[in-house]
Q: What sequence folds into this?
């Protein structure tokens, strides 16, 4: 490319129509600048030229990865297709558990012995629901299974949806953190701990949104 500009510089001085000395000087300066630019670009390291393209490619890959892995209800990704009512109930239950466990808002959360492995009652939810909480495993047990566990392992706190009511685009949740007691414990211990909260939800443009807690209590 720069060979062209070298040739052009020579033509400038030889051209008959460029008789005015000032015009020759200006034309020479302009041609020289173009020549220097061409030489600079050819000597520029290839990796510097390709850097912006690599950056764009990297950003594109990240965006693609996020698009492929993101789901508004990730806890449903491995589940068979559910009726809309079950999808709504599981979505609301998931958001309630996030508020209670991940945000540590449920009454006496600190008294839960094993915070990485929680027990959730089947009351008002389906045992087949699959909840996803970071660094937390949730075992969904029936009331009988909860009782058997307390008889075998001792008393423990577990979560229970006292209410999960959906009416159109509004929903109300009452989530409790309560004690499972074995028969021997009931004879000697009356727990004054645990509690719960009432959490309202509204559906906005197809998305459930948690509202501020309207009621909270401690046992």
A:
């Amino acid at each position: 490319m720069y060979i062209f500009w070298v040739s052009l510089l020579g033509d400038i001085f030889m051209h008959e129509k460029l008789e005015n000395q000032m015009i020759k000087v200006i034309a020479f300066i302009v041609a020289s600048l173009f020549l220097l630019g061409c030489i600079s670009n050819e000597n520029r390291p290839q990796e510097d030229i390709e850097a912006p393209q690599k950056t764009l490619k990297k950003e594109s890959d990240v965006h693609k990865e996020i698009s492929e892995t993101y789901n508004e209800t990730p806890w449903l990704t491995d589940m068979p297709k559910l009726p809309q009512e079950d999808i709504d109930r599981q979505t609301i239950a998931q958001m309630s558990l996030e508020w209670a466990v991940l945000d540590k808002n449920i009454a006496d959360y600190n008294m839960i012995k094993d915070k990485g492995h929680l027990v959730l009652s089947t009351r008002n939810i389906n045992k087949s629901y699959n909840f996803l909480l970071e660094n937390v495993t949730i075992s969904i047990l029936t009331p009988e299974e909860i009782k058997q566990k307390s008889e075998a392992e001792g008393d423990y706190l577990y979560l229970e949806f006292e209410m999960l009511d959906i009416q159109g685009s509004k929903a109300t949740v009452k989530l409790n953190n309560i004690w499972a007691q074995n028969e021997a414990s009931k004879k000697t211990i009356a727990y004054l701990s645990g509690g719960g909260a009432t959490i309202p939800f509204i559906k906005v443009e197809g998305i459930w949104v948690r509202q501020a807690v309207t009621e909270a209590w401690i046992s």
About this structure: The chain has a mean pLDDT of 79. The longest strand covers residues 156-167.
